[in-house]
Amino acid sequence: MGEFVKRVIFLQRNDILYINKIQISLFGGLYSSYNDNVMNDGFLKYLLEAIEEEMFGKPICRDVYEAAMFYTYHIIKDHIFNDGCKRTGIQSALLFLEKNGLSLKEDATSHLKEFTISIEKNQITKSQIVAWFKKNTV
Question: Is pTM beyond 0.90 here?
Answer without folding.
Answer: yes
